[in-house]
Write a structure and sequence with these properties.
This protein is of the alpha+beta class. The chain has 3 domains: about 50 residues, no CATH class; about 100 residues, Orthogonal Bundle (DNA polymerase, domain 1), CATH 1.10.150.130; about 240 residues, hpI Integrase, Chain A (Orthogonal Bundle), CATH 1.10.443.10. It is about 40% helix and about 10% strand. The protein is built from 14 helices and 12 strands. The strands form 4 sheets. A 4-stranded antiparallel beta sheet has the order 10-9-11-12, covered by helices on one side. It has a 3-stranded antiparallel beta sheet with strand order 1-2-3, with helices on one face. About 30% of the residues are buried.
Length: about 425
């Protein structure tokens, strides 16, 4: 047990180091600040104790603490733990890994950030590395190993939140014509077309689509069907987990997607897997009947785009396209946020707020999408939202005529001249 004592109007700390030898060190505090000195002594002794139990013993360096911190991330199942490890090895530890944990100062962190800038890393990458450092040191503060977090740089000291290539984001979106071709062109296998349609027409993330089961789809609710997004599949963990926001949400099913899902469940799914799907079956499983892998699907997606002569972009850009085109077609961003990112939370009262269903459906139905079969004329998709009070100008998706609004259901005229009605007429 260490102690504090005065010396030349300053308070000094006396404690045993990792080797068991007594050490005297100035606390930097004045006489009269004994309470702060005792808190500092407790942290120093905690630091020595943890360092003695770390691999190899000795002082607790940034490198040793990073190993312990990373292990806690893995135990919690953090998906990006591998990314954390990569940033540590490539950027953080080469600069400050040799320092004792309590020796790191703001100047060391500033030098680290400057070295990242000198490497010409993307601004967002620099920020990711810095805030990973911040989280790692903040954990040490909560464990009472440090008094303060050395990662206290001002926003002005960090690069702005811009892309490395400022022209990239403007091109990371698909045109309406490209989307309409991707989801119907039979040069793409049926299951992959359905997966692309799900990502674009529902605006969900890849992992969320990979975890969707038929029981999560309510086709009877009005005015539009509903997908319950509560789980997400992690390709890295090879397991289903909670969604990114940790808050489940309900997504209205666009009329075109509703028609495609009916056709897929009735014909495509049984033809692919040799049986009728059940409630617990994945809506679009892999060919082995399991959750689809993001890496494998991205490779296949780029092959499909090359086959169609479409410029390759990310699959996640299908979600960006959904949001962008919805806004371009008159959708309200404050309502669409409930569809794509769950409820916004700015005040405590938001925890008690649930947006009613009809407004969500109205905004999603504003998206104008037409199913264009390569060997047929344009086939309009029509949604009558009269019950929800949507204006007539918002009811049509595609080039519909007035006679197509007579029934309160979605009508899509598909291949072979058959009428496909996701919901029977009233």
């Amino acid at each position: 047990m260490g102690s504090i004592y005065p010396r030349h109007r300053r308070l000094w700390l006396k404690f045993k180091n990792e080797k068991g030898s007594w050490v005297c060190r100035s606390s930097g505090l004045k006489v009269g600040q004994e309470k702060k000195a005792r808190d500092l002594l407790r942290r120093v002794e905690n630091l020595v104790k943890v360092g003695g139990t770390s691999p190899g013993g000795g002082p607790l360096t940034v490198a040793k603490w990073s190993e312990m911190w990373l292990a806690t991330r893995r135990r919690k199942g953090i998906v990006v733990a591998d990314d954390y490890e990569s940033r540590l090895k490539l950027h953080i530890l080469p600069k400050i890994g040799h320092l004792r944990l309590d020796e790191v100062r703001v100047g060391h962190v500033a030098e680290l950030v400057q070295s990242l800038r000198d490497k010409k890393l993307a601004p967002r990458t620099v920020r990711h590395i810095y805030f990973q450092c911040h989280g790692m040191f903040q954990k040490a503060v909560r464990r009472e190993l440090l008094a303060v977090n050395p990662c206290v740089l001002d926003e002005d000291d960090l690069p702005a939140k811009v892309d490395h290539d400022p022209e990239w984001r403007q091109t990371a979106i698909y045109s309406r014509d490209e989307i309409e071709q991707i989801i119907v062109d039979e040069r793409i296998p049926w299951d992959r077309r359905m997966y692309d349609a799900l990502l674009f027409l529902a605006g969900i993330r890849f992992g969320e689509a990979s975890a969707l089961r038929w029981r999560h789809y309510d086709s009877e609710i009005e005015p539009l069907g509903k997908l319950s997004i509560a789980r997400s599949y992690s390709t890295k963990l090879k397991a289903e987990k909670e969604v990114k926001t940790k808050i489940p949400r309900d997504v209205p099913v666009h009329p075109a997607l509703a028609a495609l899902l009916v056709e897929w469940k009735k014909s495509g799914w049984p033809a692919t897997f040799g049986r009728e799907p059940g409630p617990d079956d994945l809506i679009i499983p892999s060919r082995l009947g399991k959750n689809r892998s993001a890496n494998h699907m991205l490779k296949k997606f780029h092959q499909d785009l090359e086959r169609l002569g479409i410029r390759a972009r990310r699959q996640h850009d299908l979600r960006r396209t959904f949001i962008s085109l919805c806004l371009g077609d008159g959708g309200r961003p404050d309502v669409l946020r409930w569809v794509t990112h769950s409820r916004p939370k700015a005040h405590t009262i938001d925890d008690y707020t649930t947006l009613v269903w009809n407004p969500l459906c109205e905004e999603v139905a504003k998206l104008r999408i037409t199913l264009r079969w390569p060997d047929r004329d344009t086939i309009p998709a029509v949604a009558n939202l009269a019950k929800s009070g949507a204006p007539a100008s918002d009811q049509a998706t595609g080039s519909a005529t007035g006679s197509e609004f007579e029934n309160d259901f979605v009508l899509l005229r598909l291949r072979g001249g058959r009428d496909l009605n996701p919901r029977p007429p009233a």
